[in-house]
Here is the input.
Amino acid sequence: MTLPSLSLAFVILLSLPSTYVRAEPAEPLWSLVQRERPALVDTLRALVDIESGSRDLDGLDRIATQIGSRLAALGARVEYYEPTPTEIVRLHDTPASVSKVVIGRFNGKGTRKIMLLAHMDTVYARGTLAARPFKIMGNRAYGPGIADAKGGIAVILHSLSVLRTLGFHDYGTLTVVVNGDEEISSPASRALIQRLGAEHDVVLSCEPPLSRRDEIALATSGIGLATLTIKGKAAHAGVNPELGSNAILELAHRLLQLNDLSDPARRIKFNWTLAKGGQVRNMIPDHASAIADVRVNRLSDLEDVEQRYRARVMAQRPLIAGTSIEVGFEYRRAPLQATEASRALARTAQAIYAEIGRTLSVDESGNGGGTDAAFAAASGLPAVAESFALIGFGFHSSEEEYVELDSIEPRLYLLTRLITELSINPARQ
Ligand SMILES: [Zn+2]
Here is the structure.
């Protein structure tokens, strides 16, 4: 251990109440966690082997059944919740049919209400698995969706398994929520997650850490989506182009004026990421559209960006006569912000990590990713923390996605021990 990390550990230990500092791991929990590793790896393989892209309802049904049966075998009352049409938010890319949500409920003899959240859908289309099957190489297990967030589901299932072996029932309720539309911004499950979040004291969300560090997060980004649609007039590009109104040119003209809506000081990011226009080579295009991805750290910033965006477009003058413009702005995700309650929760998590001689980083920066933790926190009632899954890399990319096998024991210990600590020690949020 280097000097700086020694002094950091010293500061962390000093800031904790003395009765809380343990010199060693809680037993028999730590031994049980270590014994669980091979079974957890088997679960990773089983989950990866069912392809479950957000639009693959057949695959989502199969993985939901597998997760539901596992929860039932662990003693949960299982519900497959079908979101009602009225609670589904229709975003521009929301499919006609959406996944159900697996809910597993455990009743204990205590009072604390704890919710564990993860998602079973992935960003990958059917067929990806054939090209990148599950495999283990050294300290890494590879597979589509293995880090984001099948590793989270595996940690939850095996944490429950350890609690069952321990005979631990000191929580009030323990609710597992696994949705299948996270990667398309949870249009169908967000209302349910919000509702269930409000019924719990604590929500532990099991996405992988966004950085490669061994961390949990108390903040995530809010995500918006700005659209710009230009309607023009089609005409023959060779015979009478002057009769047309070129929608692509008008779009380009507008975008160049709308490229400074980011605000680095407030961590607002506004980037045009998609554009399309025209139909065929020899026709003046009568249609063009673009989409901007917007990231913020505070909900009020999302409202502010929308206002500035709309005002700027209103103030613009068209370049091409005969074109019309339409603007839109979607609220895809609210940001998660740290609270006093979630900071207390994080301190408990850090103390638990110290029991096994590890240092847990806590991210409060909301460094770009958006997750369902924010929906769970929307009521302001529960303490919410994110990123309890395995450490991994390569998600949402063309690289092969993997988890670090050596993160299984510490991460499984962290979640399981946290559930026991939060159940028996309500003062520690
Ligand atoms: Zn995810």
Remarks:
- The longest helix spans residues 146-166.
- Confidence is low (pLDDT under 50) at residues 1-19.
- The pocket of zinc ion is lined by residues 119, 148-149, 182, 207 (CB under 6 Å).
- The two ends are 30 Å apart (CA to CA).
